[in-house]
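A reminder before we start the practical. When you read a complex entry, don't treat the lines as separate problems. The point of joint prediction is that each chain is placed relative to the others, so the output describes one connected object in space. Small molecules and nucleic acid strands, if listed, are placed in the same frame. In the example below there are two entries. Take a minute to note the order of the lines before looking further.
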Amino acid sequence: MNRILILFAHPKFEQSRANKALVKMVENKEGVTFHDLYERYPDFNIDITSEKKLLAEHDVIVWHHPFYWYSCPPLMKQWMDVVLEFGWAYGANGKALQSKKCLNVITTGGTRAVYCSEGSNNYSVNEFLRPFEQTARLCNMIYLPPFTVMGTHNMSDQELEDYTLKYEQLIFELQQNLPFDKMKNCEFLNDTPQLNKITSK
Amino acid sequence: MSGSILFAAIVFLTGAIICVPIAKKFGLSSVLGYLLAGILIGPYIMGFVGDEGQDILHFAEFGVVMMLFLIGLEIEPKSFWQMRKTIIGMGGAQVLGTMIVSFLLFNMIGFDWKVSLIISMAVSLSSTAITLQTIKENGLMNTTYGASSFSILLFQDIIVILMLAVIPLLTDSEKTAIADDHSDHIYLLENLPLGFQALAIFLSVVTVVLAGRYFFVPMLRLVAKTRLRELLSASALLIVIALAYLMELVGLSPALGAFLGGVVLATSEFKHELESNLEPFKGLLLGLFFMAVGASINFIVIGDNPLMISGLVVAVIVLKALILFLVGAIFKLKADQRLLLTIGLAQIGEFAFVLLSFAYQLNILDRVELDMMLVVTALTMTLTPILGIINERLILPRVGTKKAETRPVDHIAKTHKVILVGFGHFGSTVGRFLRSYGIEATILDNDSNRVDLLRKMGFEVYYGDATRIDLLESAGIAEAKILISAIDNSDNVIHLTKMVKEKYPNVKLMLRAKNRYDAYDLLNMGVEDVYRESLETSVKMASDALNHLGFRKYTIYRQAQKFIQYDEESLRRLANKPKTREEYIFKAKKEMKQQEKQLEEDLNRGIIEFDNHWDSEQMREAHNAPEH
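Here is the predicted structure of the whole assembly.
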């Protein structure tokens, strides 16, 4: 069973309806380490050694965060800046993260419709996530498509519950050895049949 | 006119108090003021001082001993060792060169070769008292000129011992008996073979070093524990006098012994305390010494033979200056530094009085020669400071590199940019953190036990009461960028602040305040950097409490930062006008009501309102508005 590390970054978690629901579903799962960055490092003073140890102990790394200004909140960027060191995470001798799986789990206020060349945001979520994708690639990790919870500004409780169940199923699937090659081809992991068979009941 | 000691004291003190400020007013060195005062009160003008002038001269020479002890304190043993080449090289060249040329000169004029030799010895020596006093007054100790002068003077201090040893050899054997008359020094070793003398001298130097480290420092610690300031002064005096006495006993120069003692104690925590205790004594004794020199100028001798005397004075100064200029050139001093050195050391020094009198007692010199040379000595001592001023005002500005060179020779005591006062729980944290940045503050603390302990842990901590300006001065406040006060006694902080603001307005003050009211006082004194010791800690504690209650850390963290900012602003608002504590309390009560209101409002709006950057409520509302 793959060990999963959820790196969670939300500066105002207590105010986020969507994320509270999502986190509640996965944080205490067996084989999952839920790591709340803003709670652990309110002063942005990240303990690099312990972060590296945590990464080494897991097979799947999840960057779970709201999509702020088309990116992650600053503490997660800080985390990337200081933890993913040259010679450890990348570079000739940087093999610490090699072959680990990696993906973004994001929430956005706007719907999927506004994230495309015709929409008001002009680009797709996948395009906006390029820096993450390339970061994972440089660290020799396998980058999977994101799991997205979009349109939270106007989301019914029922819809939100569907998403939380999908998230739970995603974690379950990630723990198994999935055909990751096939998953890599879809836009969002939300679209894979494995996640949809459960929620479409 | 020499009825009592009290009268003599009145004469000397009055002379000093009148003449020195006048000299200073005209921008002259205090040395000139003292010399002038001495001439005025001396036997030929006002006649207040008669023959006892010579006795006073001998007594006041102790000021030179103290000065060398204080200079020794500024030099760490390691740096002293590094100076050895300069001392022997420059000093040796200067003494030897001057002796050869002046010997030839005086021999040519027609003096007997023995007399010429004695005179050339006297001429080769310069005045430590005048030169170093002037250098220190002008703040030139850190320049090449200062260091070179010091090296040469130190060499002279050493070589004079040899000279005193050689002089008796010049006398005819049947006349040696008279040597016993010489009562200045008690030569304990006089009758011992040469080898034993050398051994005794070596042992006494070892004694000074060992006593400094293993006897004086523990003694000072013991005395410091009594917390009686006058006992520390007494100990400081005792150390210097004991060193001088030991040196006299074995026939070494007391000044040299004091210097060695100073070097040994330079690394002790009492360095600054010793400095500030001895400084006034040294100042007074040196002043007395200069006045005695002035009073000893025999104007009758000058009157009898004005041409000869003035000719000699000019010849001596030119000759010494020439040699110094050459030495400066050989050792590659820059033009301005070389000029300063040339004129600074061009006088005959106080050792000449000793050498010449000694030679007179041994019948090598006759009365006329002695008087003549004493007058020449005193006159050169008076003239060179005047020449120095001419040099400084008229010549140097044309020479170019006027500004003092920074840190040319490595022996100068290092000065830190930060002075940290108080090294208790608060101050030690400040000091440790600064140190983690490689900033070694000069630390002052008045708890000798703590000083001792911290020194063992490798901190540079000095013992002393920082509300004394002289101690702050010896700790180098003149060069300090920042003074951090971490002491908790609010009266002392206020005292310290007043003092530093008045005398060193350019030093940045950073002060620890016990509470709001102390902070008001300090803010109203114009200090901007006031740190209440409890503010950050109590907010941190409340933050942690909130976290235990289940609130998110990052939100609390931001709220805490805002709270502190708000509190600091209100502190500064409040501090502004009121002058009495009652007014503060009244105004504070009003402010408190406001704060209460504010807090109430915060609560009503909900804590979140403080920080709505990530609040999606507004966006949600906008999103759900009809047009979407």
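Discuss with your neighbour: Chain B touches chain A at residues 551-557, 608, 611, 613-616, 619-620, 623-624 (CB under 8 Å). What might explain this?
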